[in-house]
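Technical annex, item 7. During the second reporting period the consortium partners agreed on a shared format for inverse folding records so that results from different sites could be compared directly. Each record opens with the tokenized structure and is followed by the designed sequence. A conforming record, contributed by the partner at site C, is shown below for reference.
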């Protein structure tokens, strides 16, 4: 790697951590923004490179956003607990895009996943001059409708399969909104077990993979792993009530950057009907809705070859029109 650094940058008044890797400093910059809320990304660097092989064609920036991973608050007693809000997340994104422009020159490509894509879209709408193109995978678009869909799906499947434990737990939390961590976790557990998050992994498998990637990452100490786990719950507690009102169809009529939406046909977290409505209503310099027929909420990991080809075509199109 010509570029291989782990570094803290000042964003929004706090230190946040990025891992930057690339084979050629002349390649365009690609910022990856993780799903969540609360999930880190730097720990997943090896998996992203194994599945997608992006570091040969981009200078890839892996970012632990405010409150997550290496950017989570300290465990020290009496340490300052910084603000975690939607506004802060979007401001941080714009601040990091400015840092990347100043360091590498030019605009940055963004690949965002789930709420990472939503934060990226809000940032791109405010500062299109900083963004070359946005690739949004499983973007959260209409959260209230998505919650209703996810809950109904999980409860229907539980009843069809005669899974009394799932039915009991889902009925106990009641219908959405699920803006507290406990109810969100219950819904997510059964949604994952019934194939609505990934088509090939259940909830326990996803948790094991997450913890395993943290423990095996050379960038995280044991203390960092503990901070990360605490940060997931703290971020969700802070952000879920705010994010519950998200409706991009109503609030984002246009974005002045090219946008490509990667949508899993089997996604039960951010279902396809909202993606289609947003795509149909959106004004953009160019837009594309690409369906991943064998994927749920993580097309970048469920159909990685197709997702990589999509990113490389976006790169080639941008470079051809410069």
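Designed sequence (site C submission):
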């Amino acid at each position: 790697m010509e570029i291989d650094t782990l570094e803290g940058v000042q964003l929004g008044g706090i230190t946040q951590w990025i891992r930057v890797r690339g084979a050629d400093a002349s390649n365009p910059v690609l910022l990856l923004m993780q799903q969540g809320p609360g999930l880190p990304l730097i720990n997943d660097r090896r998996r992203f490179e194994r599945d997608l092989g992006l570091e040969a064609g981009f200078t890839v920036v892996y970012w632990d956003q405010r409150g997550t991973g290496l950017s989570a608050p300290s465990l020290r007693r009496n340490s300052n607990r910084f603000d975690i809000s939607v506004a802060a997340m979007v401001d941080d994104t714009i601040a990091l895009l400015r840092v990347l422009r100043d360091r590498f020159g030019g605009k940055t490509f963004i690949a965002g996943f789930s709420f990472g894509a939503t934060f990226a879209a809000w940032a791109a709408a405010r500062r299109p001059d900083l963004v070359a193109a946005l690739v949004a995978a499983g973007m959260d678009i209409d959260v209230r409708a998505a919650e209703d869909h996810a809950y109904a799906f999980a409860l229907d499947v539980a009843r069809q399969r005669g899974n009394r434990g799932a039915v009991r737990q889902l009925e106990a939390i009641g219908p959405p909104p699920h803006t507290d961590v406990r109810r969100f976790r219950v819904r997510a557990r059964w949604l994952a077990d019934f194939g609505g998050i990934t088509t090939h992994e259940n909830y326990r498998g996803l948790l094991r993979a997450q913890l395993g990637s943290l423990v095996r990452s050379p960038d995280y100490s044991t203390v960092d792993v503990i901070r990360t786990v605490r940060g997931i719950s703290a971020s969700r507690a802070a952000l879920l009530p705010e994010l519950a009102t998200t409706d991009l169809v109503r609030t984002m009529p246009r974005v002045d950057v090219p946008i490509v939406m990667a949508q899993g046909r089997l996604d039960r977290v951010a279902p396809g009907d909202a993606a289609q409505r947003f795509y149909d209503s959106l004004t953009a310099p160019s837009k594309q809705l690409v369906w991943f027929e064998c994927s749920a909420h993580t097309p970048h990991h469920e159909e990685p070859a197709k997702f990589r080809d999509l990113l490389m075509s976006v790169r080639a199109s941008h470079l051809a029109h410069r």
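The mean pLDDT is 95. The chain has twelve helices and eight strands. All partners now use this format for quarterly exchanges.
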